[in-house]
Amino acid sequence: MSPLQLVAVLLAGSAVPAAQRVGPGELRPAFAAPGAAAVVRVEAFLLDRDPVTNEAFLAFVAADPGWQRGQAPRFLVDEDYLSHWAGPLTLGPAAGPRQPVTRVSWFAARAFCEARGARLPTEAEWELAAAADATRADASDDPAFLERILVWYGAPRPARLPDVGAGQANVWGVRDLHGLVWEWVLDFNSVLLDGDGRTGGETGRGRFCGAGALGARDARDYATFMRQSFRTALEARYTVRNLGFRCASELSR
Amino acid sequence: MSGLGPAGRAFALSLSLACGAHASGPDESLYSLKVALTDQSGAAFELRSLRGHPVLIAMWYASCATICPLLVADLKALERTLPPSSRERLRVVLVSFDPERDTPARLAEVAGAYQLDRRFTLVRAPAGDVRTLAAVLGVKYARQENGAYAHTAVIGVLDKQGVLAARAEGSGAETRVLAEPLRKAADRPAGSLAPAARSGR
Question: Which ipTM was obtained for this model?
Fold first, then answer.
């Protein structure tokens, strides 16, 4: 990449991205421990319209060398961290500037958001936003909606990850919550599922303090179950080929 | 970098790149983490004050009635696997999930109840730092409606440089696997293992 191209990418990557107001709303958690609320109220918040892009992440690591590939320690990022980039400060042909950045750990994603004065969305916030389709704030009871998500989960990986923003915006104006990449949430490690937790039952009481049984509200919502399973399998330092993120912030900034 | 517009930031960044970003090898020590811990005496506690000591680190909270007493038993059992000459050097850090209720006074009270000596430091931290430490140690936790915390039981072993040498999940027999890494951490000299050669990249 020529210096001029690099400056162009850094300029684009440093721009503050569009954010959409989401909520307030009520979330009915797919999994509820006994005594847990059947309905969770989510206050209104700002959510990035699109996932964070390669060019935005490049601007971040250029400004904070401690997060560059090769500099970030192994207890914060695994060995595949940004491995698809041509270099620590070079995107290269396998990482288009407008593609969602992937192969970033939770620590790196959180550091990116915090550098912007933002944060990762909580799971409840993300799920509230993701329950919406183009016309309804809560499409999660619509089997066709759930089916579309499952079709994406089951589809073979595309040869090339699309650029952000190609998908239709949901009713909040947020794009690509489904159909592009999986996304980190702030409290991904709050999901305590032991084995196949869909139908409840004992959850390894010897390992979980106070958890009891976690049962699925609706066993037909397999899409949410898949996301929960994915989250519970993650460790904060993991980087995954199709796992990216976007940032959230409070309404009053 | 604040105060500059996007163009200004990009210009500043490209300048720093042209001059060559300073390079240092990755620091694998948990003591590089920026977390604000307060101990049971109410004083700020710096993780790096543990440098030079083998460390057991775990997360819990004072009101925890089931797993947590077992956790203390496991920590004491691991301490006893060390040769007597090494036990004095051991440090144990217990991080609370519950900064609201686990005030320094409460932590001091619990330390007394469990008869934990001065090698044990009980700390609380702001919610964000609790999230950081849980993420580093691979602890899952969730605050429940009634204020209790559901959480996994995890013990980590830090070597004298603060690098996470081993971790175990569960309780009782499942934590015995830490005896060997703990002994190794206690045996190894405290002199710093220099990071990979620092080159002017």
Answer: 0.87
